[in-house]
């Protein structure tokens, strides 16, 4: 029985020491045929040679591998270059330092092909997060109201979702001007296309956080860049109807308040004036936001204080009021 090809696009930058772990998890996939697009993004540590060697070793009739170079900087540019090579009906993106569980592709294809609207479908699954100390935790997830929960928990993060290729293209591809939280922003645009959404209640990926992960170890060192993504999301949400627009906008303000709390927490720890200044800009904006009620504004200060002192559980305590 002939089966459809599933495509996986992976941007890679200076991952010579660890990319084999990700590539091995792809070879271990129970589903075939697969089309793998590896996009080297200006690596200087021999990564490109490793990718080519892996292709020579593993390419077969049911495991087609493309290795290309993308000179434009950034994972989003690399993902767009990879997406341009995809011809299969369904695809996903993945990161070069994480691990696919063996059944990921099979489960994704099962859900996507079972959709009542396959050409406008997206699927997400659970994930395990492992930090640099080896501690693991299951990432939060809710299948109710996907757009709201994506804004809260990033349920369409790069490693946690697949979709019809035409949906990815219809959403406009990746925003190459955003250096971080680009999957949060892209996921919003995907969901604003009103796709059929399905959820696989299984852990299908292990996300490894390292000192070289794209998001880095703190928020302050990329102050201003997180805000760029939130601003782009706001522009996308303004295309929705008024009632939903206001609800989602208030949730976006909640994320800005949490970000301000992270800046202040780090300013206290690292005696950094940059974090304090960035937090002041955000809190001043929030104080004038037309999307917050008086009650929500009163919650901003305890939300920020909770983020500074506890740094967890914010969504459980506060997000229901936004």
Properties at a glance:
44% helix, alpha/beta, nine-stranded mixed β-sheet, 322 residues
How does this structure look, described?
The chain is an alpha/beta fold and 322 residues long. The chain is built from twelve helices and nine strands. Strands 1, 2, 3, 4, 5, 6, 7, 8 and 9 form a nine-stranded mixed sheet that branches. Strand 6 and strand 7 form a beta hairpin. Helix 7 packs parallel to helix 8 and helix 9 runs parallel beside helix 11. The protein is globular and about 60 Å long.
Brief write-up:
The protein is an alpha/beta fold and 322 residues long. The chain has 12 helices and 9 strands.
What is the tally of beta strands? 9
**Gap from first CA to last CA:** 50 Å
**Coarse shape:** globular
How many helices? The count is: 12
- Rg to the nearest angstrom? 20 Å
Please indicate the percent range of residues in DSSP E strands (runs of 2 or more): 15-25%
Low-confidence stretches: none
SS class? alpha/beta
Q: Oligomeric form of this entry? A: single chain
Main sheet? 9 strands, mixed
The residue-averaged pLDDT reads: 92
Share of helix, binned: 40-55%
Q: Spell out the helices and strands N to C.
A: EHEHEHEEHEEHEHHEHHHHH
């Amino acid at each position: 029985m002939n089966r459809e090809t599933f495509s996986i696009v992976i941007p890679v930058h200076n991952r010579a020491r660890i990319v084999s772990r990700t590539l091995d998890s792809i070879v271990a996939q129970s589903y075939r045929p697969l089309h793998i697009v590896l996009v080297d993004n200006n690596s200087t540590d021999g990564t490109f040679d490793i990718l080519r060697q892996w292709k020579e070793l593993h390419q077969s009739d049911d495991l087609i591998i493309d290795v290309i170079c993308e000179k434009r900087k950034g994972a989003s540019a690399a993902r767009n270059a990879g997406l341009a090579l995809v011809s299969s009906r369904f695809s996903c993106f993945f990161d070069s330092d994480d691990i696919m569980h063996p059944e990921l592709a099979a489960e994704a294809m099962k859900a996507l092909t079972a959709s009542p609207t396959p050409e406008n479908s997206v699927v997400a699954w659970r994930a395990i997060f492992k930090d640099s100390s080896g501690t693991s935790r299951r990432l939060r997830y809710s299948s109710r109201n996907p757009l709201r929960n994506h804004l809260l928990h990033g349920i369409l993060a790069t490693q946690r979702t697949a979709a019809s290729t035409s949906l990815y293209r219809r959403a406009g591809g990746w925003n190459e001007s955003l250096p971080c939280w680009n999957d949060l922003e892209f996921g919003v645009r995907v969901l604003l296309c009103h796709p059929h959404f399905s959820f696989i209640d299984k852990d299908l990926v292990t996300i490894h956080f390292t000192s070289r992960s794209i998001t880095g170890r703190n928020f302050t060192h990329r102050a201003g860049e997180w805000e760029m993504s939130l601003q782009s999301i706001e522009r996308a949400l303004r295309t929705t109807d008024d009632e939903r627009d206001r609800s989602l906008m208030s949730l976006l303000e909640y994320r800005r308040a949490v970000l301000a709390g992270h800046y202040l927490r780090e300013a206290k720890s690292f005696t950094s004036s940059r974090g304090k200044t960035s937090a002041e800009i955000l809190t001043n904006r929030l104080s004038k936001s037309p999307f917050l009620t008086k009650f929500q504004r009163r919650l901003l200060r305890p939300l920020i204080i909770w983020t500074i002192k506890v740094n967890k559980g914010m969504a459980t305590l506060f997000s229901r009021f936004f």
